[in-house]
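INTERNAL AUDIT FORM
Audit reference: QA-55
Scope: verify that the stored structure record matches its stored sequence.
Auditor: D.O.
Record contents follow.
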Amino acid sequence: MLNRVMNGKRSLGWKTLAALALLGASCGGSKKPIVVGSKSTTAQVVLGEIVAQHLENRLGRKVGRSFSLGNTQLVYQALVNAQIGLYPEETGMVLAGILKESVSSDAASTFERVRNEMRRIAQLEVLDPLGIDNSWAIIVSKDKQFETLSDAERAQPGWKLGVTRDFNERSDGLASLHQYRLPMGAMTRVSDADSLYAALGAGELTMVVGNINDGPLARHDDWKALRDDKKVFPFYQTCLMVRADLLANDPKIQPALAELAGKIGNDTLRKLNAAVDVDRKKPAEVAAGFLAQAGLK
């Protein structure tokens, strides 16, 4: 009798331990939280919201948002430190700002270099481009008789130039523009993009540097972008940069993100930005509209 009781206890203990082991394995294999980050521009916040909503639709679980974190260096460090799991980034910015390498005028080689180096030094995956080239835009009035930046070297009187703080500080920004000998008629103004475009519209500035996908450019047929004929600026293909351990933790994430590749062109992003900057719609509303229109909801 005593042996039967002891055997029963051993049997019960084994089953309990097995159940606990399975529970522990289940907990250990739980999916990590997903947090999408972004830099502080409108385009970054809109793209971040598109990515977050798309993942929620495809994975059926809540996705965190950590938007407007600051410049590239701050958001990149947040990614490396696992404060966020992914964010949109431009290949040219990675090349110049993170890897500290010379810019390249070849989009394919820039992308491959960035993808390989991010895997090697940071265990990050750079996914296929979204379809955007978020290049610098050197904007002037359409009535100016110039089409390239080399043409603009002949301007008389000199230009009244305004640049964003980002462009002023980056090695691939104002320093690169100086490779063109543009005559200046006033001190360069450094401000936010909205103020610069307002000053261009008011005639206070005659040349403004922003990004080709800035929202105001979608609403001004009287402005044009001068072509970088010397190719001093690199390609800025926008890709999603993702932690490799996040992708490994949930095999559904990468196929879901792959659905966004090639889906967002410059014209589309410019209109989405205009909806936020000009029409004052919320980024979440604009992102939802895009996903529905693209058949991704």
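Auditor finding: record pair retrieved intact. Residues 2-28 form the longest helix (27 residues).
Action required: none
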